[in-house]
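Chapter summary example: a protein plus LLP.
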Amino acid sequence: MNHFDIRDGVMHAEDIPLPRIAEDIGTPVYVYSRRALERHAQAFRDGLKDVPKKHLAFAIKCNPNLGVLRVLARQGYGADVVSGGELERALAAGMAAEDVVFSGVGKTRAELAQGLDRGIGQFNIEHEPEGVALAEIALRKEMTAPAVLRVNPDVDAGTHAKISTGKAENKFGVGIDVAPEIFGRLAALPGLNMRGIAVHIGSQLTSLDPLEAAFERVGQLVADLRAAGHSITHVDLGGGLGVPYKAEDNPPSPAEYGAMVARVTKEWDVTLMFEPGRVIAGNTGVLLTEVLWVKPGAANPFVIVDAAMNDLARPALYDAYHDFVSVTPTGETMTASIVGPVCETGDTFARDRVTDKVMPGDLAVFRTAGAYGATMASTYNSRSLVPEVLVDGDRYAVVADRIAAGTIMAAERVPDWID
Ligand code: LLP
């Protein structure tokens, strides 16, 4: 069941007609469904039913809204964070510090100290000097930092190059070949409790094969580390499971993913940690927008909407596909390019796409916008920062205000030495 469906000719988010939100809040605006978030959180957990010891840490980079995080905290999710800012959000949303995992390729010393002060559950060490720095800081605080070493298994995730993280040439983790020696040196440091391994090979994965290949390599590494006398109690398998962006997309389900994980890790005897992001949040949100103009083009018309690349960056950044559908579809279609008002050609959501017929003043949505949507928004072209709404049955709340261009400007000043 989809929580954004057409009832009486009008798209609803759960029981709220989207035109009501547009009228109350204005457009563009992100709209999330609480029920969808809860359903996806449960489906991912159910998928892992054959994994006895597990910890679920929502990758909050994909949707760090406090309202969204609170929903997931109530579902028993912790957080995977990649900055001090995300760490504070996870705690503010009510996630327990011990349920927080700190990933991130360039943590600062201040962020490592912050993680220790907050008492987070695990640091995912990206390379040896970071581990050495963490050990020093922990020792100074008379603490022991729970940590795992992130390895780069050198597998091709088969996804967009900009969101691939597990090939040797990517910046993430340490090569799996050198991992045993680095692990050994870090494990000898007072201040660190090196308890396992982490891996994350990329995002929007539409096949389980590269994940399985990566996990097999990690399994071998765990066996090697144990043979060398190390105690391995935790393995973090990262996130990455893809979601359908088009009706015909058929990525592996959480149940298929979970079955593969249970099979591959059967003998590991560790607590498995997961960092799902998109698979939880992607299909729980839409970006609601109004059609401003329809303008003739060389081949097909341009549908100019009031959302732009600053609100939803994925098409401009990764040529990503987001379904564009009318809030009040008539059944008629048109072939058009869907573009935003920003002054560059990259501000194109869809080129020459067969889509619902829309006219100026109509409302429409970009689907699958609950992950890597609002969180990647900017104020480029001095546009406002896009607001967010969370729907729960027949009620909704604004969970992030629209931040007006004037508010952003008010934080700037002209130095008095420019006359
Ligand atoms: N864990 C780590 C260490 C990660 O780097 C990521 C995502 C995740 C977990 C969550 O991955 P997911 O389950 O969401 O695939 N902005 C891009 C996606 C960037 C992903 C970055 N890392 C996009 O819009 O497609």
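Key point: The chain has twelve helices and 21 strands.
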